[in-house]
Write a structure and sequence with these properties.
It is a single chain. By secondary structure, the protein is of the alpha+beta class. The chain has 3 domains: about 210 residues, Glycosyltransferase (Alpha/alpha barrel), CATH 1.50.10; about 210 residues, Glycosyltransferase (Alpha/alpha barrel), CATH 1.50.10; about 100 residues, Immunoglobulins (Immunoglobulin-like), CATH 2.60.40.10. It contains 15 helices and 19 strands. Strands 12, 13, 16, 17 and 18 form a 5-stranded antiparallel β-sheet that branches. The longest helix has 23 residues. The radius of gyration is 26 Å and the shape is globular. The N terminus is likely disordered. Bound molecules: 2-acetamido-2-deoxy-beta-D-glucopyranose (8 copies). One 2-acetamido-2-deoxy-beta-D-glucopyranose binds next to helix 4.
Length: about 575
């Protein structure tokens, strides 16, 4: 009798998987995921097991594994998804608003707890997890983890921006800003130190962490200027620029993917990078690769390398063609629970592509570059590099296939979702049965945000548009000095002065990339053109000023090249005449 009942359950799960369309799955799974997510939040969640108000438990599982704690990262990602739902008017219930306010109150308390990572002002914000009764967890752990403060700031700033737009700036200034500022101060101060990655295993530098830190400081600058907290702007901007610079260094140009950790001795192929892409999504930035937008050539190339890493290591993927969706996990070398697929990783693989499709549709074109060609070749063996307008058949072929490919990842999760719709942390690589922590909270927002992305929901942007990677990356190049270049020159209308020279900071003699100087008001027959640049200390370089009219190079200074050697430190001011 008992076993017959089990057979029926298994049969139902199989039916759901094999005959259900993706819409059927989404329609049934979305409300289940939402309910299960809320069940894991204190104080009223039915599975929150006594968690204090506003705390997210990682899972109700108390053994094999024991996840009945609250993690700063997971909680921030959960609440970011809920704050998006609230601020995008998808769920305007007063209980959701109360829950968000509870989250704010709980985080305000947690920030102040002295813990093994430090006090509130000496690094304690890098503590990864706490007890669910709002006390410090003191056992051994992979600490610190430096993504939590940035992710929490991102969630709270998203809420803050909505409150400001809804005439509640006083709550932002009085209640949210003090919490946000602590997180951003922490991020600005500690971003350049190593810490444990999001999987809590490798202590080095991690792409996901760097991306979250960068985003948080950019959003912090914008919020600070909105509410008049101008004293932080300079420092946050400086460190955001350094972070954007450092973010570029993870790219592996030979093998076309992001090496997710600088340490750990692994391939670096990791869901870390796909999660970084979806959590960096800003539709206004188009397909910008510097911020690893989902449709950027680098993020697409990385997607292929990441997914391919799982095609042959899970037997449930055996029968799947090379260009069809498969179950994916954290990273191919994973040994936790013997290395299995994760629901949230597989959902992220879908979400990145849905976000990409949203942007291509909005901009009415997509670009195939030499970097992303291998990704696109999965969907059309004859595709070539180029830009394809929405009216072209290539655009239709590619976007239709990519949509089906993205849906394929959701259908993999659907196939291995049990009949009650619950999502654990992992599912088994041989037969797909759920594994490890039951009701992993993060599995639910990961599912819901992938569904929302499929509908074309676009979360609020964060200022990724038009960010320039500083030509000098302090984090990579060591000590810098500031050079103030001032040139006395007479110019005609539409004419501008630029500077170009023998080092990275001076665009390596490339006039197209030259920095343009700013002119003072015209004096008698000239103006003074100025630019301040960071140049490596104790470095000899050559340079010239050039003229451009309407952006086109019209004149170089006469020979010889100018040359200068920077001092070991300080600021140097040069005032020179056009030659
Ligand atoms: C939790 O339940 C209490 C008692 O019913 C209620 O006052 C409170 O608003 C609830 N909190 C949330 C976040 O729904
Ligand atoms: C909080 O929870 C921890 C872990 O369960 C427990 O050891 C501790 O005694 C609790 N503290 C309080 C004040 O309830
Ligand atoms: C501002 O938002 C807070 C947090 O939800 C709320 O408690 C407060 O009543 C709001 N104030 C106004 C004026 O709407
Ligand atoms: C997949 O392949 C492995 C070895 O290559 C094999 O042991 C396993 O049975 C296969 N699984 C399925 C589901 O085909
Ligand atoms: C970051 O750390 C590296 C290595 O410790 C150091 O060389 C570099 O100067 C630091 N960069 C910044 C901007 O602090
Ligand atoms: C401005 O005019 C003076 C006097 O004619 C001349 O000596 C000087 O070179 C001119 N300056 C520039 C920048 O053309
Ligand atoms: C530069 O652009 C302006 C405005 O578009 C135009 O009037 C002018 O003729 C252009 N000058 C040259 C040299 O192309
Ligand atoms: C100035 O530098 C450029 C780039 O290195 C070089 O090609 C050129 O010959 C130099 N000019 C002189 C006069 O040395």
């Amino acid at each position: 009798m008992h076993s017959a009942w089990l057979v029926v359950l298994t049969f139902c799960a199989t039916v759901l998987a094999q005959s259900g369309s993706i819409e059927d799955y989404i329609n049934s799974e979305a409300p289940i995921s939402k309910a299960n997510l809320l069940a894991n939040i204190g104080p009223n969640g039915s599975r929150s097991s006594g968690a204090k108000a506003g705390l997210v438990i990682a899972s109700p599982s108390t053994s094999d594994p024991d996840y009945l704690f609250t993690w700063t990262r997971d909680s921030a990602l959960v609440f970011k998804s809920l704050i998006d739902q609230y601020t995008l008017s998808e769920d305007t219930s007063s209980s959701l608003r109360s829950s968000i306010d509870d989250y704010v109150a709980a985080q305000t308390v947690l920030q102040q707890l002295t813990n093994p990572s430090g006090t509130v002002s000496t690094g304690g914000l890098g503590e990864p997890k706490f007890n669910i009764n709002l006390t410090t967890f003191t056992d051994g752990w992979g600490r610190p983890q430096r993504d939590g403060p940035g992710l929490r700031a991102i969630a709270l700033i998203t809420y803050a921006n909505w409150l400001i737009d809804n005439s509640n700036a006083s709550y932002v200034t009085n209640t949210l800003w003090p919490v946000i500022k602590l997180d951003l101060d922490y991020t600005a101060k500690y971003w350049n130190q190593s810490g444990f990655d999001l999987w809590e295993e490798v202590s080095s530098r991690s792409f996901f962490t760097t991306a979250a830190q960068h985003r948080s400081l950019r959003q912090g600058v914008t919020l600070a200027s909105k509410i008049g907290q101008t004293s932080v702007i300079s420092e946050y901007t400086t460190q955001a620029n350094n972070l954007l610079c450092f973010l570029q260094s993870y790219w592996n140009p030979t093998d076309n993917y992001v090496t997710s950790n600088t340490g750990g001795g692994r391939s670096g192929k990791d869901a870390n990078s796909v999660l970084a892409s979806i959590h960096s999504f800003d539709a206004s930035a188009g397909c910008d690769a510097r911020t690893f937008q989902p449709c950027s050539d680098k993020a697409l190339a990385n997607h292929k390398v990441y997914v391919d890493a799982f095609r042959t290591i899970y037997s449930i993927n055996n029968a799947t063609a090379d260009n069809k969706a498969v179950a994916t996990g954290r990273y191919p070398e994973d040994v936790y629970y013997d290395g299995q697929p994760w629901y949230l990783a597989t959902a992220a693989a879908a979400e990145q592509l849905y976000n990409a499709l949203t942007v291509w549709t909005a901009q009415e074109s997509l670009e195939v570059t030499s970097t992303s060609l291998a990704f696109f070749c999965q969907f059309s063996s004859s595709v070539q590099t180029g830009t394809y307008a929405a009216s072209s058949s290539t655009f239709t072929t590619l976007t239709t296939a990519i949509k089906a490919y993205a849906d394929g990842f959701i259908l993999v999760n659907a196939k291995y979702t049990p009949a009650d719709g619950s999502l654990a942390e992992q599912f088994h690589k041989d037969d797909g049965h759920p594994l490890s922590a039951k009701h992993l909270t993060w599995s639910y927002p990961a599912t819901l945000t992938a569904f929302a992305a499929r509908k074309g929901v676009v979360p609020a942007g964060w200022g990724a548009k038009d960010l320039a990677v500083p030509s000098v990356c302090e984090s990579n190049l060591g000590p810098q000095v500031t050079m103030s270049f001032n040139l006395i020159a007479s110019t005609v209308k539409n004419e501008k002065i630029s500077i170009v020279g023998s080092i990275d900071a001076l665009s390596n003699w490339s006039p197209d990339d030259a920095h343009t100087l700013k002119s003072s008001p015209y004096l008698l027959n000239y103006s003074i053109w100025n630019i301040n640049l960071k140049i490596p200390a104790s470095t000899r370089f050559e340079y010239k000023f050039i003229r451009k009219v309407n952006g086109t190079l019209t004149a170089w200074e006469s020979d010889p090249n100018r040359s200068y050697e920077t001092p070991a430190k300080g600021i140097k001011v040069l005032v020179q005449n056009w030659r």
